[in-house]
Q: What sequence folds into this?
């Protein structure tokens, strides 16, 4: 495919988006960062994303809500969940609902880049992990 | 019912032996908790370097886990040295308050609208403050968790009595091949707490991997053999064993020395721990890869995260230097 991979990055902790965006940009992807899950959900209603990377634990709307919305309305979108290490029970539940993969905090940007590259590969893209 | 409760329920003529076994099990727990705390400190040190994506939740969880595990260590200490329990808990409460202050403190500068490589996010500032409280900083500091842990160690190691009565139990004496100079008294803490052995044992009959590594020095491979002057001698030794554990200590001796080993074959759980008084030259006993701490109360040394092979080799070297006369 010739177009760029479009990625949504959703985490209510600002540090996550701030640190991850440059790392994912380097892969040659288009990245939109959200801290407010409500705003992210609105954006998902109007825009197609290839991959959504979302924290599992957020106020009001959780990563599970985002996953359920995408499974119902945009099943082609790959969802990668970021979990705290105390939330593996939720992670298991998400696995049953079709999440592409998990990544546990704290993690290195390279760990996420590898997961994104795999998800993009399944969609027919070839991404550089550098 | 866990094994501790079972042991407590068992009626044993020699209640001293039962108490001694319980004390040894409790000290093992104490070491396990200390080991987990050291791993948590190492995690905090690694994550603060900036390579990781972390959030406030990680730092808060780290604080909570340290407080929880420190509480377990304090509990163990208060059982082993009950007369100091009140003091231990007072100091523990101070650390709980410090942890609470770190969590509620929220005056790190907001950097969300700033850019540049020199900006340190609040999460990293918090983690850095937490590391200082742990004692992970470069400069030695007072009132850190590490300092408290060291104080607990020395209080427990000096407070736990050597149980000299064991030396009066002929059934506990074992032949080791080195008994010409020293007598060895062996307690199998899972079995002897229930009933003393019917006959005198020999080392070969005792099921304990670390014990055999430590004492079967005649079978030591050539590469391990490094003749050294024996650092000290003791007339009597108590050896407390289970299948994967050894606790070795001097008794009725001019020197105080204690060695505790966990040897499960699991790198994340195994360790060698040593306590020695300051008259003993540990340079003649332990390899340089051991971590060491020295104070006016004695010397601590430990080896963590070693491969099974490294642990075995180190045990054989220590056994050889402790018990084999070369010079």
A:
């Amino acid at each position: 495919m010739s177009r760029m991979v479009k990625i949504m990055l959703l985490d209510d902790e600002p540090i996550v988006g701030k640190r991850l965006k440059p790392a994912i940009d380097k892969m040659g992807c288009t990245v939109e960062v959200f801290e407010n899950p409500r705003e992210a959900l609105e954006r998902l209603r109007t825009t197609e994303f290839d991959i959504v990377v979302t924290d599992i634990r957020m106020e009001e709307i959780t990563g599970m809500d985002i996953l359920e919305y995408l499974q119902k309305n945009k099943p082609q979108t790959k969802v990668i969940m970021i979990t705290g290490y105390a939330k593996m029970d939720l992670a298991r539940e998400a696995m049953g609902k079709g999440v592409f993969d998990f990544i546990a905090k704290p993690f290195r940007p390279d760990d996420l880049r590898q997961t994104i590259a795999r998800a993009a590969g399944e969609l027919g893209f070839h991404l550089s992990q550098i | 019912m866990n094994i501790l409760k079972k042991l407590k329920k068992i009626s044993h003529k020699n209640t001293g032996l039962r108490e001694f076994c319980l004390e040894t099990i409790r000290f093992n727990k104490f070491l396990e908790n200390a080991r987990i705390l050291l791993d948590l400190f190492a995690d905090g040190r690694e994550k603060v370097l900036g390579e990781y994506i972390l959030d406030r939740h990680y730092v808060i969880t780290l604080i909570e886990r340290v407080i929880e595990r420190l509480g377990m260590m304090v509990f163990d200490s208060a059982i082993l040295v009950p007369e100091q329990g009140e003091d231990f808990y007072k100091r523990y409460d101070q650390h709980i308050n410090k942890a609470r202050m770190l969590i509620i403190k929220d005056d790190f500068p907001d950097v969300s609208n700033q850019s540049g490589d020199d900006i340190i996010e609040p999460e990293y500032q918090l983690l850095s403050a937490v590391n200082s409280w742990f004692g992970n900083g470069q400069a030695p500091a007072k009132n850190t968790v590490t300092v408290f842990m060291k104080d607990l160690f020395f209080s427990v190691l000096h407070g736990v009595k050597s149980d000299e009565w064991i030396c009066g139990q002929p059934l506990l004496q074992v032949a080791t091949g080195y008994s010409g100079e020293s007598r060895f008294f062996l307690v199998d803490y899972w079995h002897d707490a229930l009933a003393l052995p019917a006959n005198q044992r020999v080392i070969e009959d005792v099921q304990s991997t670390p014990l055999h590594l430590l004492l079967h020095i005649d079978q030591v491979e050539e590469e391990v053999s490094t003749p050294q002057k024996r650092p000290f001698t003791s007339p009597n030794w108590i050896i407390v064993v289970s299948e994967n554990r050894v606790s070795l200590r001097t008794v009725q001796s001019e020197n105080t020395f204690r060695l505790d080993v966990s040897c499960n074959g699991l790198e994340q759980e195994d360790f060698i721990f040593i306590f020695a008084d300051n008259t003993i030259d540990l340079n003649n006993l332990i390899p340089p890869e051991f971590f060491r701490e020295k104070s006016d109360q004695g010397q601590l040394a430990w080896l963590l995260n070693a491969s099974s092979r490294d642990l075995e080799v180190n045990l054989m070297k220590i056994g050889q230097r402790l018990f084999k006369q070369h010079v």
About this structure: The helical segments of chain A are 14-25, 37-46, 63-73, 88-96, 109-122. Chain A touches chain B through 18 residues (CB under 8 Å). The two ends of chain A are 19 Å apart (CA to CA).
